[in-house]
Amino acid sequence: MALGPARPVPLSAVNPVAQLTAIAVVTVVLLVSGDLVTPAVVLAGELALLPAAGLHRPRPLLARTWPLLLSAAGVAWVNVAFGSLDGADAWLSGATWGLRVVALALPGILLVAATDPVRLADALTTHWRVSGRFAYGALAALRLVPLLAAEWETIRLARRARGMDAGADPVAHLRLLGSTAFGLLVAAVRRGTRLATAMDARGFDSGMVRSSARPSVLRPTDAWFVVTAVVLCAVAVTLSVLSGSWSPVLG
Amino acid sequence: MRWPRAARCPRSPPAAGGSDLTGPVPAGVRLVGWGFRHADRRAWAVRDVDLRIEPGERVLLTGASGSGKSTLLHALGGLLEPEAGDARGELLVDGVAPDRRRSRAGMVFQDPDAQLVMTRSGDDVAFGLENVGTPPRLIWPAVDDALAAVGFDLGRDRATAALSGGQKQRLVLAGALAPRPGLLLLDEPTAQLDPAGSALVRTAVAHAVSDRSATLVVVDHDVEAWLPLVDRVVELLPGGGSVEHGPGWMPAPLRLPTRSPRAAGELLLSAEAAGSTHRGSDVPSLRPVDLELRAGRTTAVTGPNGTGKSTLALLLGGLRAPTTGRVVAGPALTAALRRPGRPPSRWRAAELVERIGTVFQHPEHQFLTGRVRDELALGPRRSGAAGPAATRVADELLERLGLTELAEANPFTLSGGQQRRLSVATALATRPRVLVLDEPTFGQDRDTWAELVALLAEQQDADRALCLVTHDAAVVRALADEVLELGTPVGVS
After folding, report:
1. Is the ipTM value over 0.85, yes or no?
2. Which of A51, A204, B78, B485 could be a cystine partner for B99, CB 3.0 to 4.6 Å?
3. Among partner residues A160, A191, A201, which is closest to B352 by beta-carbon distance?
4. Could you tell me the fold of the domain covering B267-277+284-485?
């Protein structure tokens, strides 16, 4: 699995900090609202952004969102089955919760799908004064994640080659899983240490002031993006109040 | 008219006007009675080294595994913190301690995946320039110069994750060269690459230092390959000190075991049009191949990276099932099995280790215990030997491989050569008739190489069948009765 989009998508043109700001606005409104209309309207706005994030085909969309859809369905079901409400009210509550979860998490998925993590680190260090040590250190660690999957498979097979398998015993399965995970941890730490040395050798975090090869600039588009998010939330809340369903969680 | 060679050199002159870039002034190195001992060790990793390297010189630093080459190179790069251990003597780069002017050196290590930071090629080369605060307007010209100097022509926007090993390592080299270091330090830069990738990297190094704008120190076991590129060879001695080898010096020829040709024995294991395709992938990781492993014979599997050599090793080792064709074990292997009809990939692990032993490319993937002796006793115990019997097997192998003194040591703390011998020994402990080895001589010094080859020749004489997956032409020459060369790479290049 690649980190960030293979080639830029329209949403990549929006500065990551503008996207993060918009996400913050949407998150606050969704956390405060307790009705069905608000998340429904916000979600409609988010869905309209999917093509801009390069997620217009069902397969890549499903690949990115299935864990989210699954957990939203789970949350909704728990509310219907175990909530204090009965009948239509229970279904309404379940739908509200399900929609809220999707509407809360989808912006994050849009950000990840459209943003090269390098640009995110650039933007965070430039505009929000996040320390380069943290931002680029995390970035380097993130690059190692896809390698872990291959490493896991190798360690698992190497264990079989040494005569270790669990057969039909579930406890042995669990122990083997634990020891494989420990092997992976050891391998990850070793590679991480080597990466840290290599970054040291390239003058990372040497106390000098870093410069940036990729200026992270804020353009009018970025302001408009945040304004649009605010307007979307305002419309959602207004519709909710006008339809009489507004029931804030706080206050 | 023809331009003089220097004028066609693609590297531009140093940026004028008080830039932060260090100009291309090569660094001089001086060591006087230098030594270093790591904080957690009793023995000195390096000691009594006297060495002088003139600015612009190219030196190959070699020596047996564990002679402290990498430690010395780390010290030159300013990467040995004072709290990492005790230093004695003097080690100076341009007359100062290197940890006080770390930006004088550019370094390249073995594993490209543990060196790339950014997702795009150009960004990665720029990383070192950003770290030293190079003004943004100077960064991209310097990046382009560095990419041209190493012959990387895939463009700045190419995703680093999609590059081959050789291309990644070229990119790492460009990243090290971009800040114009006066001292270029390479720590076994080709050890993880196939011959084509290694040649690519060496060509890039040769081109990058052709104008002598940087002093070059290379650490590598592959002396022959680097000889044309260096002015002289310095060999670190295991007991301390070093010897110089001048121009025209050649390393002693590799010690090859004497072997008498043997008739092919019974058929132990065969691949019949066995191929493999990863789930969700369109291209096969291994195109269907036929192969027979017979008692007393050695088959080498060669070919460039990406042709599925390691996948074939997994299929033959009974670790993965082929997705097309099949892997069939002969009657000699299946004799005492509970269900002889099953393919090796469906045998129980304990049954497998008594019949087919696999040695992985990286030994540390295979170590499961905290002591060398336990490591060797593990296989026999898993396949049903009683405790004392397993320990006896372990002690015999320790004796045979000269590892007795290390019986109580932690396998992860051994040197590379010792780890390799131990990983082969763990496979031998259960006396399998078939041995599958993935790059057994990978990154080994000449002594370990000779020991390994002798050990493998012995297995062959003991009527085992060996399958070596390898890039190492010398090991093929020394041991192989048959060679299977896999063709052009499949999948993305």
Report:
1. no
2. B78
3. A160
4. Rossmann fold (3.40.50)
